[in-house]
Each structure stands twice: as structure tokens, then as C-alpha cells.
Amino acid sequence: MALEEILDVERLKEYLDLIVKRNAEKQNLIGWVLAKDIQRRKLLEIGDKYSPAMTQGILLESVCEKIPIFIESGQIFAGTEEDAFSASYALINPAFHIESFQGYNDEMAFYDDVKPGDKMSDIEVTKEMIKNNRIFWSRHPSIAKIREIYNDTENQTREAVYFVERVTGHTIPGFEEALEKGLEGIIIELKQNKKKFPAKSDYFDSIIKALQSTITLANRYSKLAGQKSEQEGNPLRKKELQWIAKTCHKVPYKGAENLYEALQSYILLWQVMNLEQLPNPYAFSVGNLDRIMQPYYKRTKISKKLAVQLIRHFLAFFEVGDRDWAISQNIMVGGSEVKGNDLSNDMTYIILESYHQFNRPQPNFSVKMHPHTPFKFYQAISKFMFNFGHSSPSFLNDVAVFSALKKKGVAEEDLKDYAIAGCQEPLIKGKETGNTTNSWLNLAKVLEISLNEGYSLITGEKLGPSYEELGLEENPFTSFTETKKVFYRYLDYFIEKMIKAANNCTEALSLLPVPFASFFMGGGETGIDMRDCNSGLGTKYNASGCLIHGLGTTADSLTVIKYLFNPDSQVKFSLHDLITALKVNFEGFKELQNIIQQVPKYGNNIDYADEEAVELVKIVSEKINRQKNTFDKNFAADWSSPSTNLLYGYWTGATPDGRKARESLSFGLDPSPEMATNGLLTRILSQSKLNYEIMTGGSAVAMSINPEGVKGMNLEQKAQYLKDIIGAIFDYSLEGKGQGLGYVYFNVFSSKQLLDVAEHPEKYPYPVIVRIHGQYGDARKLSPDILKKDIIPRLDPGSVSF
Asked: What fold does the segment set 141-164+429-697 form as a domain?
């Protein structure tokens, strides 16, 4: 029977309305607790008789055998992500408040999200279950090691000088082989590898165990769909359930032969990958979905309209109950070969149309751009991104990203396969574990500490060494050059502390092997787990990331200090006066504040200010890129700040640029709000001076488009407008070579519009999607701190808006 005879386009649209409504009612996610309890009971049964990798494989098998499963009304694919995530997350969580946030240091905090009494199937989450699991898992060696790391760095991480974490998720699995040949063929090959490499036999067995878990789960879904079809009275729904049963019996055990089967197979693989790393494996990303699914679309004799609805249901899989924020799953389309040839295809435009019709906060959407991006690609995006409250994609500049990846050591043949893991971190799909959020660095806080002999202006605590302990003179600020040397000495001190703690986090994570995910990252060839720190590389590429905060704030602060030292400035205030003013948050220093306001700032295409940002990016990137992780591979400098600029600013005292204590830091590579006053094009010229090649971990630039500017335009005019904007930002003019900025996202709002959403969310019946770095959020549900103190202030029309 043909797929068109079973799945009706209009019925599938109605199903999506059901799914969205049902998700909104799921406010207490408990599947992960049941999964952890299944794992706990299994561990008590088997003890330590198996290797760590085989133990993890057995635990995954146990979860896939016993976790409650469901196929709800409206679902045309079997599978869910709900069992992998807890109900809350900091920063974008509607309940987030800057003042009360204490970081991510409590590894057991997600147990606070669970409400006893909730049921899943016939299993109830009890107080005893929560207590038993909290106690049991808190004793795991991995958790104990993490707790020790945070205890050692407590005062520095609490005040956000830097932060470190063990990174789950944050990879892009290469599922193509499994989609094409099925797990049956893969398992046969793995058994042959066991014979060739007997020393790795146990690890290959753990991979086989993990992959077979997926088959177990698929067969359970097949059986459930069959049972439900027998009970179903509606003949149309009965056929759909029978189709699900038939498909899950086939894939992913066998290879997929059409688009529907490929999507179903992908969903099941994804679900198991999440279950292996629960709870909360953030930022698993799909990569170029258009390239992955194009072969199966070509084999499938269905209309484009039906293909769009299939993709919309696929996108719906990535929604997790009512938690429509902060999971950072990224889907991409578009892009080019290294030589510049466009790689878009039929599925590219089907997926773009799906996003047009599917305005939801998850999953995030990114597009790859290049000088030869077709005009119809701009048209497809323009159909939705200028509409009020609709999602807009992140834009990646292939030319700049290729350059940074080559600098990092990526082979030319792999460049086209880069994709975004999480917010904006470029990794090679199926071949790279980037450990992208392993460390976070606050430049403005380091500057604060360096000007105050190691002490915090927020708490008065000693966070770093004294000048004497660093081998500096008692008064080291004899010139601007010497002052910068002091800053960089403190930066070196904290980078050393941060890298040591970050690597310890990586070692803690290595105690939890991931044989399933590792297979799809090259582990089937190497026989080495992607997290294994002692046996060599399990993936082709490996790095660790450092997200660097406060470029604009710190660069402007250095410019002000330079100005005070310049005899031509004829200023009566000294650096000593400025430091005194910082300690009292500028109270009583109005005249000095007025002078600071007149000093040129980064973002206005004034070399006097921009050169400090250029130098800061160069020196800090090189310092980070030289650091080594536990695999003896380099760290990657990532100039972004996913709303952490707000939190890190809260823990940073007054800064020399005139910013008051606890105010937000600048975002990503952006100028500080209201500092770039000469218009957006001059800001772009300032940002184009930065070296994007050495930003090997990525970068972030936020801009906005004034919705008034596109009023009355037809689709072709909007597309041309978007093309002109992208051309200016990425240097795609006739003379340009694409060596402009690397990444940009847009919010198409005015401040007035978003403020009204924040204050009157009840007026808006549909999602109002805003960009928060590489993530989406529904403005009606976001934390007021994030919306009013970070996003809205950065919609400054003088510096960010076209």
C-alpha cells in the first residue's frame, strides 16, 4: 500500500495541533527518574563484574527493555525525547532569577524538579524513589569527582571568574550508515572486528549490546502499535498504527527504503542516544538534515506537500513536553563545497517550508550561507522570518567557518560536513567530539580582579593572587602597556586554574562510557570510547571548548584606561582615581563618568577603540587555543555567551567603561548596548576587523531587523533585502570573498513589541519566538530577567538594527 493512501496531508496537520496542545499540558517530566531507577536496580543486581563500557551497555539495554513507552493520538512516528530531560534548566527557564542562581554545581539538583505522585503508565514516582536515586547516584565516582572539582574552585566559579562542566551531548552523530544498511549489517561487521582486534573485544561487545537495545526498543514500539491498531475503531487511524508497527519491525534493524522509514529510524536512534546520556544531554544536533534525507526522498513517490508534513512531525519529536526552551538541538540546511558549489537540494526547500508552517521553539534552526547561495533560498527563508513572532534561523558563513576549521586542523574533505552542535559551535558530523562547553571565561571579571590586587569588588573576597604573589611590583600600573601586562598575567593565572578544572571534568565524564554514541562518532572503527581519556582518540577530531565572555565590555575598559594614560587627552583623572571610582560603583565620580562616556568605544569603526578589541581577540584566542585537554588536543576559543553574559555581569563589579556593578556584560562579539552609536554598518566594519580564523570554537553576533523596514514589501523584495543584509555582514559583494563575520542571528522585533509581550503575554495566543543566542524561546514564557535585562536592551536601534 502506498504511503499517500495511508497518511493524509490535512489529517497530519490536524494531528500536529493535537500534539502541540498535549505537550503544553506536560509540565512534570518523570521518565528520566524511572530510567535512573531502572539503572539503579540493575547496578545493584550486577555489581562491578563487568567493564565500565559493558556496564553502560547493560544499563542502556535494561532501560530500553523496561522504560514505559507510548504512542499517543496524532503521532505518526513512534518515539519520544521526554524520558531524557528534566523539567527545568537555568537561565532560560521561566523561573530563573539572576540573584538566586548558584551555577550548575549541584549534580543532583534536577531531582528537585520531580513531584512525587506523578505516574507514567502504572508506575508512580514516590518520595522514596526520588530519595533512593538521589543518594545512590550521588555516590557514583563520576559525581564524587565533579563535587571535588567544584569544592576546589568554589569561590572562583561562584563569582563567575570562570566556570567548568562535564559535557554530555554536544555532538553530531553520523547516523547515515545505520539508516542505509540497518543495524543488522553493522552488528555483523562489529562481530568480525572483534575477531580482528581481540584486545578490543569487550568494547565491541558493549557497542553491540547498545545497538541491540535500539532493536529491542523498536520491537516494543512495533508490538505496541500493533496492539493499539487492534483496539482502534477509526479505520484511518488503524491503518496508520499498522504502518507504524510494520515500520518499527523493519527499522532500524534493516535499512530504510523511503523517507518515512528513514525518519522513523532516525527518531529511534536519537531516542536511544539520549537515553544513554540522561538526564539532560543538551545540544545533540542533527546537522544537514537536507543532505541526510535527500536520498530517501528521491526514492519515495510522495508529493512535496506530504513530505513537508512528515518533516513537521519529525520536528515535533524534538519538543519535550511543555519544556520548549534550552535543549539546544540544532537542524541545518544549505551550504557549499569548499570550492563554493551550492549543495542545496529538494529536501532543503521541503525543510524550509516545514519551518515556515511549524513555528515552534524546538528544534533550533540554522542555515549555511555562501557567496553563491541561490536567490530562491533567500525567498524560502523570507516567507517566515519577517513575520511577527516567527522563528528566524541562525546564519553561518561557510567561508569563514571553513577557514577556522582548517586552522583547527580539519581536513579539507571534511569541511562541508561541519554542522552546529548546540548554539553555534561548528563540529564535523560523526567525526568530532568538541567538548564545546567544557570551560567558560569571564574577561571582565579577570580585569576587575587584576585592578584590585586579586580581590572581588562584589564580595570583597580574595579570588586571585596579590601583585607580590604574581611577582609584580607594588604599584604595577605605571603605563597603559604595563597595566595590560598585569591583566594578562592574571588571565594566565586563571586560565591555568580553569583548564586544570575543565580537564578534571572531562576525566570525571570518562567514568561514564557511551558505547552507543561512540559508534556513531567513529568508535566502531577505533574500538575506543569517545570519552576514554587513556586509550587514544575514539574520534577523528577532538578538542575542548572555552566560551569567552565580555569582549565589548573589556575592550572598552582597556580603551578608557589607554585614554587616561595618554598625555594628549589632558585628563585630570588617573588610573588610581578610576580604580577608586570602581570600588564605590562611580558614586561621587560624575565628572569622571562624563569623561568615560566621551571616550571612543568598540563598534563605531574608530580604530582607537577597535584596536583593543582586535588585540584582545588575538591574544586571548591564542592563549586558549594553545591549551591542551586530557587527549593532548587543543582547546578551541569560542567567542560567544549564551545569555550567560547577563549572569556573569551580575557577578562582575563596575568596569572602567562606565558600566555599573552587576549590570550585564556585552554579548558575544557585540559592542556593549548603546555604545555603538554610528549605525549598524559601522558596527559591522568594526567587527570585520576581528580575526575569525582563530575563533576555532565559533563566534556569536546578534543583530535585529526593524519590522517597519519590511512593511509593504512583497516576497521578492524581502528576499533581496535579506540577501543585501547577509551580503554586507558576510562580505558577499561582487568584490568580496566571504571573509566577513562568521555567524549572526536576527530578532525581527522592535523593543516596544517585545516589551508588550513580556508585560501582557495573555494577549498573544500563539508562540512569539525570540532568538536567545543559538536557541529559541517563546517570549511569553521566558524569564523576565532574560527578556527585559538582556534581549530587549540589545535591540538598541542605534547599533544593532537594519
From this structure: Anaerobic Ribonucleotide-triphosphate Reductase Large Chain (3.20.70)
